Amino acid sequence: MGMKKGMNMSRKKKISKLRRELPLHLMLLPGIVVIFIFHYIPMAGLVIAFQRFQPAKGLFGDQQWVGLGNFEYLLSLPNTMSALRNTVVIALWKIALSLVIPICTAILLNELTNLRFKKTVQTVIYFPHFVSWIILGSILIEILSPSSGIVNKFLGLFGAGPYFFLGDNRYFQGTLIVSDIWKNFGYGSVVYLASITAIDQNLYEAAAIDGAGRLRQTWHVTLPGMRGIIVLMMVLKMGDVLNAGFDQIYNLYSPVVYETGDVLDTLIYRLGLGNAQYGPAAAAGLFKSLISMVLISVSYILADKLFDYKLF
Amino acid sequence: MEKTAHKSIRTSLSRKIFNICNITLMTLLTLSCLLPLVYVVAVSLSEKYYVQTGMVTFWPKGFTTAAYEYLLGKEPFWNAFFMTVKVTVLGTAVNLLMVMLTAYPLSKTNDRLTGRSIYAWYFFITMLIGGGLIPTFVLVFQLGLRDTIWSLILPDALPIFNMVLMINFFREIPVELEDSARMDGAGPLRILRSIYVPLSKPAVATIALFCMVGHWNAWFPGMIFIRTAEKRPLQTYLRSVIIQMDTSQFMGEDYGLLSMLADSSLKCAQILVAILPILCVYPFLQKYFVKGIVLGGVKG
Q1: ipTM above 0.90, yes or no
Q2: Cβ <8 Å between B131 and A143
Q3: Domains present along chain A, CATH in parentheses
Q4: Chain centroid, CA A9 distance in Å
Q5: Residue A64 forms beta bridges with which residues?
Q6: Among A132, A265, A285, whose Cβ lies nearest the Cβ of B235?
């Protein structure tokens, strides 16, 4: 009897807890629905990769299955392997430089003594981050033009060029990497600058008393103070190895530079939306999703193990 | 004694040299970001002859506002401009609503929300893997959203990354505030509205600004989902007239004014008008976003 009553009590408690929580669950509902429709359904929709997909029959419709046919077709295309190689090369350069350049910029910014000047520099250098690649692409096309662009005119003063930065396979990747860093280094440096500001000033004084100059102070105090965030950013950027930057490349490339500038995302776009070859495009997308998933998972696990970093 | 004095003079000299180099380098970096913009302004305000002969550098030559006058009467540009204003306002409102509604329950501890970790994983997984372009494209078609403003808003209605930012902000708020409000009979929606949102103003402002800039700069959804020319957002429109150099834009238009200005001037004028709104919110971005990205930088 007593036990039964106890069970009733605890069940009642549970019910009242659930009733109290019900509004919270209802609040989550819109988010759950939107994510289900626009994230989970497309995830399941990757089955297109194994189909000869006909849009008229729809997603999850009665499509013809082709096994790994789409993957075989992809491998038979001449661009696929070069696109994969370009993706990794461009992405790795961007990842490396997007760590080094903002870190150096932040350290140098921190050395500026005139606060007004420091603030002005900061304000200007992170502006390009907020401008779209459509706008920046238009500006780049304009200023990098071999005939009328101001950059080539400037280089011409020293007898160099003209270089066709956006139309020559020798320079295209470099142009992509440099312009991407140019767009984003200011933004990145703000994050590192914040971590420098957080370093205990007493450490610098102690180092100065020990006779360390500014350079040694930077090496022995500033950099160790930033180590946490640097390694964390490195780890978290791992997931971008297959993201070479679609927005940028799509707005700057042309068939002349496919050889060095075509990447997985642009290939997927052209195959799928340009040629209506949904199956092969989805196959390339599936490949990219799976590799990225492994990389991102590993990066989060590392970040968690090394820094006790938790997203949620 | 003499030796140390000598040393300090030397250090201060090397320090001076360093400072000069550093200031020079920082100035160069700043100019690299500033000069392209100055060039665009100069070209947009220069006469055709000087632009076409490449004589314009960082100051207008043969000052004229013809490009802007022409642009003022250019209907497709303003159609696109106001379409983007509409998408930005509506899209940001939807984003904020979704982010706050979802972040609030997820900011609770496990004992206050049954199944919290299941929900958290449900959202987290979408940061690890997604369907990618092709299935999403097919899905939007099948849902009949193509060529509607919703195709530009709904697929990213709940930006997960911003939601994570919001959760982390909400967690900072002492739970006692909520408990006492609940004692007074306030429900979760009320608590969210009158305690959580006001107390996380910097986070809400940061997220609102990020979403606004994101919508303002979006061009890809407009390119693949919108067919009707009048419904195209600004960046998509700019892409078609500037990067693809679609000359049909000039069809049946007033050639009088057009013949007086260089193609580049018109491009540059459009670029500047498209950047203007970003410049307007820039002071606010600066005010809030350092905190926002530091949290964001650290949190993914």
Answers
A1: no
A2: no
A3: 2-65 (no CATH), 79-307 (1.10.3720.10)
A4: 52
A5: A52
A6: A132
